[in-house]
Amino acid sequence: MKRFGLATQIFIALVLGIVVGALFHGNETVMAILVPIGDIFIHLIKMIVIPIVMAALIVSIAGVGDIKKLGKLGGKTLLYFEIVTTIAIVIGLLAANLFHPGSGLDTSNLEKSDISKYEETTNTAGSSGFGETISHIVPSNVFESMAQADLLPIIFFSVLFGLGVAAIGEKGKPILGFFEGVLEVMFWVTNLVMKFAPFGVFALIGVTVAKFGIATLIPLGNLVIAVYVTMVFFVFAILGIIAKMSGTSIFVILKVLKDELILAFTTASSESVLPRLMDKMEKFGCSKSITSFVIPTGYTFNLDGSSIYQALASLFVAQMYGIDLSITQQITMLLVLMLTSKGMAGVPGASFVVVLTTLGSMGLPVEGVAFIAGIDRILDMGRSAVNVIGNSLAAIVMSKWEGEFDQDKANHYVDSIKQSDVA
């Protein structure tokens, strides 16, 4: 498969996975063979994310070395994230009112999936107040946070550590050199891991189709269509306008991120492309220090695709049970989603947990989410790709805002991609 690029390899793997899954629908033996392959790929991705995020943040923060500048960047970044994700939630709610995906759904023919693990997580997460959510940002044990892949406390520690390296001057240079070396090594490891991506995608898609069957999409087709149409609209209308205002084009961004978007879509994991996304945005002209801060932080605070899905899914459940929410109730739901979508970041099955928590707080039947569980992976594929686009654009916007975007470097990189496509 060396003659084909990564994007082509992954697409072929996706098609083959769907075919194999459809042919062996319900076959436990085939699923038992495929599951470990998919799990290995996901484990490989999780293995490289934390070292890269820590090393990149420490190197970039130590390079900035100015706590005032960092505070200013952090404030602007969080403001941007809050505005864009709120727009995403509003559009999700408007789309649910426009499409009415849950109306007239015959729930008797749908197989309820087990969501007990999500309900348990929701009860634990939901019992945490706003104060606990804020205090959770500060790790009591950074190694425990690393073991749990909890990005927010890791980001907090890495920022402080980077500032410490900068503060001690010459004595900090060996430490800085060490983490620069770690970063280079981890990018090499990332390229190695990506060679396994087609096999991982084949297994992950194959298991999903073999387990649920293609027919699973039919009764819930309205929700799938509504989510994807809304996401496409959000990318080309909202993110397209933001890209235009920042002096670039959404089509250029899509071209630059072609491989990463296909990988994120097929694996249903935006985390799978985090290392490559940081590398690509730096090559595209974004400041290294800004990219290393904005993108990992965006994986917690700027999940546009997830925000759209959470809003649509919440109203879908209400519509499914024939519950008509007033404008006031939907505004309340908007405010709840603005809080829960941030507070649940890093929680396993975060989008599911957010929807469950939102439904519970609004007094809506949480068991309705069980109907979405069977097709959640199909929806997750779309929202993962949108999350990647949103965070890459955020890095561009913040670099431009801070006057640290290299347009010549961006133009050169885009030209090199065009030439490689022709070749």
UniProtKB/TrEMBL annotation:
PANTHER family linked to this entry: PROTON/GLUTAMATE-ASPARTATE SYMPORTER, PROTON_GLUTAMATE-ASPARTATE SYMPORTER
UniProt KW Transmembrane keyword: yes
InterPro entries from the UniProt entry: Na-dicarboxylate_symporter, Na-dicarboxylate_symporter_CS, Na:dicarbo_symporter_sf
Keyword terms of this UniProt record: Cell membrane, Membrane, Symport, Transmembrane, Transmembrane helix, Transport
Transmembrane segments annotated in the record for this chain: 40-65, 77-99, 151-169, 196-218, 224-243, 321-340, 352-375
Biological process terms in GO annotation: dicarboxylic acid transport
Gene Ontology MF term list: symporter activity
Mode of membrane association: Multi-pass membrane protein
Protein name: Proton/sodium-glutamate symport protein
Subcellular location(s) of the protein: Cell membrane
Main location: membrane
Any Gene Ontology CC annotation: plasma membrane
